[in-house]
Write a structure and sequence with these properties.
- The structure is a single chain.
- The protein is an alpha+beta fold.
- It folds into two domains: 57 residues; 213 residues, Protein Transport Mog1p, Chain A, CATH 3.40.1000.
- 27% of the residues lie in helices and 27% in strands.
- The chain contains three helices and twelve strands; from the N terminus they run αβββββββαββββαβ.
- The strands form three sheets. A seven-stranded antiparallel β-sheet has the order 3-6-7-11-10-9-8. It has a three-stranded antiparallel β-sheet with strand order 1-2-12.
- The radius of gyration is 29 Å and the shape is globular.
- The termini are far apart.
- The N terminus is likely disordered.
Amino acid sequence: MREVSMHSTAGRCFSNRTALACFGLLLFVMGCGYAEYEQRLGETRKYYAYLDRIEQSLAPKPKWTDPQKILELRVPRQFVPIPPAPLIKKDDGTYEQPSIDPRQPDYLNLNFPELIGAWDSVFKVAKGNGVTEDHKGYIYALSNYWELGGERATDAGEFVSRLETYLTDTLQIPAAPQPKDRQPEIYPKTSPAYQVQLSYDHFSFPGKNINDTNYTFEVYSRKSGSVIGVLVLVLPEGIDTQQKINERIPMMLESFTVTPNPPTQASDKNSPAQGNPVQTAPGF
């Protein structure tokens, strides 16, 4: 009768245990790999869902920009641009700005300084008891760009504070919050952020009555080098939530870019080559 060596039995047991351990390790590694794959796939789905929300919410590409590419952005989808009036050619061959700019507000005695672009839209506004009315909303794009190359170069960096003072005096409403209580706002606010986050200064003027409807003036500004870009939103209070404006404004802010390059000495904002005339508020 053949005897079984204790050493061979132990060896087989060791081999079996090793094989089981390796198999278990393989299953563990495969499980970790699958879990990582599922996580990455989930993040990819979230990213493309984010891009789809952007496309569904904002004006179609390409971004709007002025001829000098001072500012670029995509406004909420319901807004349409207000075209500027053309420059006026004088007898000496030079050009001047028109006395009336259709982009400036016609609902208040207000002229936005260094106005570069404007948009409007009609919103359904709740008036109580299930009643809604149509009221317009507006977006205005401003910049200190041309001030940097002109007579206001020394205080062009104070553009936003001067704008705040001008709006406070014109609207007769104090800005909120007060400067000491303001904190920078970052967009996108989501985590993870799928693009470079932008920092904004933000203040507002709520409760301005225009044609028996309260409006809020929201002012968002950001810097790129010495160039400041500003977006002023003038929206009626009580906009129907189905119009999704509160969802779309942050997406617009994510898209807002400001050139870091100030104008050259040869630049002239009243040249027809510069395209849209830039309006400056009297006394600003």
